[in-house]
Amino acid sequence: MRRHPQNHNLHIHHDHTYQGLPVMHEKGPFICEHLQRLYDTMQRALDQHPRTFAFRVELRFPSSGMLPSYAFTNEVISRFVESFKAKIEHSRGMARRNNRYAHPCTVRYVWVREIASSDRPHYHLVIFLNRDAYHTLGDFRSNGRNLFNRLEEAWASALRLPREAVTGLVHIPKNPSYHITRDDAQSQAEFFHRASYLCKTATKAYGDRQHSFGASRG
Fold first, then answer.
1. What is the rounded distance in angstroms from the CA atom of residue 40 to the CA atom of residue 47?
2. Distances (CA, A) of 117 to 41, 80, 146
3. Which of 129, 170, 172, 212 has the smallest set of CB atoms within 10 Å of its CB?
4. What is the reported pTM?
5. CA proximity to 38, closest of 62, 63, 21
6. Where is the YagK/YfjJ C-terminal domain (predicted)?
7. Strand partners, 91
């Protein structure tokens, strides 16, 4: 495999598949190491939660206004993840108060930091949850306690902004949700094909001392 010209620790992947799973070849080439992290994260999610709910989300920055000093470093995505995980943990705790058999849920994720036409970065994420606990993002227009509202609240917390200030900054793409099952190879192939988009070489920034890719460890 050819090394990435801007980061020699990374390698370029041109094939139509990875680990036997299809990739979105028309969006390639891809970064091999990122595909592997995506694959590993999916497998860890399925090892713990044989029925996994995965979804894609994009986090954007406001075009103007004051932001904390860390906003344009990867500290901001770490703060978002920790806030979202805390909200899920709280939600499951409340569920257990009503039903001691309520399903647990470990949050796993993959994120990429991209810079396209503007000088402000944005983040693409895939988040993995236990499908026996969560199976939909919920109504985007609702003020109820659904996943979409928790995403907005977590992004507002990461940016130190009020919830209403991030309206429109948490973007859900078309067909964002995937129901993946441990023993269903087709569901895994469909998910990996779509999620491989995060691993493309294009629009990644190097040389600004910020990682362009991250994933949960456990």
1. 10
2. 30, 24, 32
3. 172
4. 0.93
5. 21
6. 46-216
7. none
Tokens (6 digits) for 99: 């039903």
Tokens of 123: 């983040």
CA distance 37 to 84: 21
Tell me how far apart the alpha carbons of residues 38 and 32 are, in angstroms, rounded to a whole number: 10
What the block records as the tokens of 175 is 């067909």
pLDDT tens for the chain, 218 residues long, are 687 766 667 999 999 999 999 999 999 899 999 999 999 999 999 999 999 999 999 999 998 778 888 988 999 999 999 999 999 999 999 999 999 999 999 999 999 998 866 667 899 999 999 999 999 998 766 566 799 999 999 999 999 999 999 999 999 999 999 999 999 999 999 999 999 999 999 877 655 567 899 999 98
Within 13 A of 141's CA, how many CA atoms are on the CB side? 0
Q: Which of 127, 125, 123, 103 is nearest to 115 (CA)?
A: 123
Q: Which long-range contacts (CB under 8 A, 24 or more apart) does 65-68 make?
A: 65/165, 67/159, 67/160, 67/161, 68/159, 68/160
